[in-house]
TrEMBL record:
Pfam family, one: NDK
Keyword annotations of the record: ATP-binding, Cytoplasm, Kinase, Magnesium, Metal-binding, Nucleotide metabolism, Nucleotide-binding, Phosphoprotein, Transferase
Residues annotated for ATP binding in this entry: 11, 59, 87, 93, 104, 114
Assembly: Homotetramer.
Keyword Phosphoprotein: yes
Cofactor(s) recorded in Swiss-Prot or TrEMBL: Mg(2+)
Name of the protein described by the UniProt record: Nucleoside diphosphate kinase
Gene3D superfamilies in alphabetical order: Nucleoside diphosphate kinase-like domain (3.30.70.141)
Location of the protein in the cell: Cytoplasm
Enzyme Commission number: 2.7.4.6
Length: 143
C-alpha cells in the first residue's frame, strides 16, 4: 500500500447545498486526512486552466461556467491509496450510474453538476495539487 495525496474539489452545487461538512466526514471516516484546504471562487481563466485537458470536449464551456458559478472548496487528501479510495467515495461521474452510498449518488444532480472532483491518477494528482497549492501550504502530519 502506498501513502498518496490527491486533489479534492467540492464543487459549487455541493457548497450551495451546505454539505461541506458531510463530504469532509466521508473522507475522514474512510481514513483520508485533509492536509491542505481553501475556499475560493474560480475565475474563468483558473477554471479553463484546471480543465485544460477537456478543452476540445463539447461540454467544456458548460463545465467552466458551472465551476465558476459559485465558491468551491479545494483540498489535498492524504492516505493509503488516496487517489483510488477518493474516486470510490465519489462514485461514477454520472450520478445515475453512481453506487448507493457514494457522494455523487447522494449529492449530485446530473453529470454536469456532480458535486465533487477527484484526481484520476497519481500523476494528475501531483499536477492538480500544484495548480492550487504551494508546497508550504500542504501541512505534514506532526503529531
Ligand atoms: P472530475 O474530473 O470532476 O472528478 O470527474 P471525472 O474524472 O469523473 O470526469 P471527467 O471525465 O474528468 O470530466 C470532468 C467533468 O466534466 C463534466 N462532464 N460532463 N456532459 C458530459 O458528457 C460530461 N462528461 C464529463 C463532469 O462534471 C465531470 O466531472
Ligand atoms: Mg476527471
Amino acid at each position: 500500500m502506498a501513502l498518496e495525496r490527491t486533489l479534492s474539489i467540492i464543487k459549487p452545487d455541493a457548497v450551495a447545498k451546505n454539505v461541506i461538512g458531510g463530504i469532509y466526514n466521508r473522507f475522514e471516516t474512510a481514513g483520508l486526512r485533509i492536509v491542505a484546504a481553501k475556499m475560493m471562487h474560480l475565475s474563468k481563466e483558473q477554471a479553463e486552466g484546471f480543465y485544460a485537458e477537456h478543452s476540445e470536449r463539447p461540454f467544456f464551456g458548460a463545465l467552466v461556467e458551472f465551476m465558476t458559478s459559485g465558491p468551491i472548496v479545494v483540498s489535498v487528501l492524504e492516505g493509503e491509496n488516496a487517489v483510488l479510495r477518493h474516486r470510490e467515495i465519489m462514485g461514477a461521474t454520472n450520478p445515475a450510474e453512481a453506487l448507493a452510498g457514494t457522494l455523487r449518488a447522494d449529492y449530485a444532480v446530473s453529470i454536469d453538476e456532480n458535486a465533487v472532483h477527484g484526481s484520476d491518477a497519481v500523476e494528475s494528482a501531483a499536477r492538480e495539487i500544484a495548480y492550487f497549492f504551494a508546497d508550504e501550504e500542504i501541512c505534514a502530519r506532526t503529531r
